[in-house]
């Protein structure tokens, strides 16, 4: 999808340096991928301490179980 964006040139130059990407499209795509990944990781991290854990669950026994 073609989109015109007014990007801060200093930020774009820094993105090129740290990412090693050769084009604007590649640098912006990488930035968006990493932004999304970080936000998804943050949501998972927020679940720590909120889920109930079954202390009697034996994950090793489940590995050998045949379906």
Q: Which keywords apply here?
A:
67 residues; mainly alpha; 3 helices; elongated
Description:
The longest helix has 22 residues, at 24-45. Helix 1 (9-19) crosses helix 2 (24-45). This protein has three helices and no strands. The termini are far apart. The protein has 67 residues and is mainly alpha-helical. The protein has helices at residues 9-19, 24-45, 59-63.
Sequence-ordered SSE layout with sheet pairings:
Blueprint: H1 9-19, H2 24-45, H3 59-63
The whole-number mean of residue pLDDT values reads: 89
Low-pLDDT residue intervals, each spanning 5 or more residues = none
C-alpha end-to-end distance? 45 Å
Main β-sheet description: none
What is the molecular shape? elongated
Percentage of residues in DSSP E strands: under 5%
Radius of gyration: 21 Å
How many β-strand runs? Answer: 0
- Strand-and-helix sequence, N→C? HHH
Q: Tally the helices.
A: 3
Q: Determine the structural class based on helices, strands and strand pairing.
A: mainly alpha
Helix residue percentage = 55-70%
